[in-house]
Amino acid sequence: MITIKNPVQLSGMRDAGRITGEALLAARDSLKPGMSTHDVDKVVHDYIVKQGATPSFLGYGGFPASACVSVNDEVIHGIPNRKRILKEGDIVKIDVGAYYKGFHGDSARTFAVGKTDAATQKLIDVTRESFYVGIKKLEIGNRLGDVCSAIGEHIEKNGFGIVTDFVGHGIGEHLHESPEVPNFGRPGRGVRLCSGMTLAIEPMVNAGSGRIYVLPDGWTVKTLDRSLSAHYENTVALTDNGVEILTLIEKDYPF
Ligand code: MG
Ligand code: MG
Q1: What pLDDT, in 10s, does the model give residues 216-231?
Q2: Measured CA distances, 138 to 17, 26, 197, 198, 236 (Å)
Q3: Ligand nearest to the CA of 170
Q4: How many whole angstroms from 132 Cα to the centroid of ligand 2?
């Protein structure tokens, strides 16, 4: 069932989204070669708790940390680890969820640690762009497939692989709600979009093929061909006034 949020609920979603987005920025600002993925998680955890919120991921399905921190060919769900040290040129995906006064926010970014090369930067940029290309189609009366297909087309047009085994999702009182939001689809198909929907839209893009596998730890998702992977996610609300990006604190795309 898709839950439609009323104005009071949307206001709660905004608060949760803001804390989520701010926690991500705190993590970004802390990034430097030599720190561990556990250190990144601690920045996220401490920020969320300081706001009086709860990390959505901690204990979710048994996940042992507050952020998913995935490096290079790890796509998503990387488990923070004291022994995993970030080095110059790595790309790191940080996925954060915050639960505040009854609502969840969910957002992810891919950051380069220090300098990266042009090809890697393009992967990061196209992943972010595909989100914005998608939400251009997020209009009352459109179909979900209009959004999903736009995301997928932008990724494929740039020669990258779409991760199809994991998808975005509705979000609200629960971290994962209906509907599923794949990063591919067909225009004109799927549920009709209406005011009050809140979605976590999250393209996962591989430099090579979109095929992935899960490590024996049961969580970490990696690219099958060991190519690099990027992830970009925001929680968005569709209202009578258009699209609101609830987890975006600093503009990162020319509107
Ligand atoms: Mg997420
Ligand atoms: Mg999500």
Answers
A1: 999 999 999 999 999 9
A2: 18, 29, 10, 11, 10
A3: 2
A4: 16
